[in-house]
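<instruction>
Derive structure tokens from the sequence
<data>
Labelled lines for chain and fold:
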Amino acid sequence: MMVAFIGCTEIYTPKIDSKAETLVIEGLITDGTGPFTIKLSRAILFNSDSVSASNFVEGAKLTVIDNENNSFTLTDSGKGNYTLPITFKARLGYSYKLHIETSDGNIYESNSQKLLLPQSYDSIRGVFSTNGFIGQDNKLININGSNILVDLFKSVSNVDSVPLCRFKSNVTIQYEYTERLQDTINWHWVYDNWKSFPLNGNENITEDNSNKISALITGHSLCFMPIGMQSYGLASPTTLAYFIYYLRIYQYTINKDSYNYYKEANKQLAASGKIFDPITSQLYGNMKCINNPSKIVLGLFEVSSVMQTAFMVVQGAYSKNVYLYKVPYVDIPSSGEVRFKVWDSHAPMPDDPTYDNITPSWWMHF
């Protein structure tokens, strides 16, 4: 006996409100130095062919309120950016919530977010690795570099209270080269240059160890740092004197709300179209509309403590030895160049201040 299976296919057309405007909140406050900024925008409408940046929300009233009912009013800085007072200082152990009133009469509020004690990793190391890396031309290439690994929570005994952390890493390439002009005899130009690059793609979060017998995490990968200026789209000058890699690491201790948000975001970003991949859906954060609970709100108001560390990373292009030297953490503009004259030893130095070495004040930290 033969049994025939006949299937029917029906096109599903979901009901979509193409005119619905959705508020998007992007905000982070830490125990570090401000000022802190909250950004408001509108999600692009369905079927819209516009990618204009003019979807920011202005004219809203924003307030951050702590658990002692102290209120901090944000200033509208334009283009959807709202800034807390420069005197605002988040306090460890306090809880904060964000209150928003938009010009269309809607009221939004976040869940209360506690500022937890900052955590640090127990140890850090660099391991030689060859990884796929998307270069400045957006092409995937295989490149040698350093996989930066950390161990965490060795001293945490209560698995039920294991901290949740996320990391952000970037590298500043600092390099110097010289140039001698044909019509000069007694001096040459020295160029000091720097440019910073982010090293994380998806949100880098630790695993939730609450269902394990130990809190210890070993070999957590913070980032992959390529070796070689060409990996970052930088041409190596023929008169290159030196270049170094300045790695900065930000470790945020986050709440469960933030952890769940980033975890869900990573699931969707990691989907590759396979049958058991997570279905792309609205990524809800910790905000809600008070006067209309059915109204969709996107984004996250994050309250996290932060630890900032920095290292000089030394590794040759073909060497499997990676050395990390801890150095002071400093804030550096994302890119820049300083040019100054250096006079040859046999030539007299002219009495002119423009010939002085004007290397940035932080340059010698390295």
The CA atoms of residues 34 and 88 lie 7 Å apart. The chain has a mean pLDDT of 84.
